[in-house]
């Protein structure tokens, strides 16, 4: 006999969370740097901007982690099957 599906688990679809993390980080960065002058020069290092980017990513990651642990139903879900043991699976 083949494997029998006993039902499905509703689990978070983690590959779809990547864009959410990117969007959240970009929004935090945009809000925090909105009042700055647009003086970006690709030939110069901008340590303050790099610190803001790291902070925005960390804050977005922390926020998503907290939401995942408390309110996982807010995020895209996928169904993963769970299988029932058959007579062939039980050792004699």
List the defining traits of the structure above.
alpha+beta, elongated, 92 residues, two-stranded antiparallel sheet, 2 strands
The end-to-end distance, rounded to whole angstroms, is: 17 Å
Oligomer: single chain
Task: Summarize the main sheet.
Answer: 2 strands, antiparallel
Binned strand content:
15-25%
- The coarse overall form would be elongated
Poorly predicted residue ranges:
none
- Residue-averaged pLDDT: 81
The total strand number stands at 2
Helix run count: 2
Q: Structural class of the secondary elements? A: alpha+beta
The share of residues in helices is: 40-55%
Q: Order of strands side by side in the largest beta sheet?
A: 1-2
Rg, rounded, reads 22 Å
What order do the SSEs take from the amino end to the carboxyl end, as H and E? Answer: EHHE
Could you say how many structural domains there are in total? 1
Could you give the topology of this structure?
Elements: E1 4-12, H1 17-32, H2 47-70, E2 77-84
Antiparallel strand pairs: 1-2
Helix pairs in contact: 1-2
Describe the structure in your own words:
- By secondary structure, the protein is an alpha+beta fold.
- The protein has one domain (4-36, 46-84).
- Helices cover 43% and strands 18% of the residues.
- A two-stranded antiparallel sheet has the order 1-2.
- Helix 1 packs across helix 2.
- The chain is elongated and about 75 Å long.
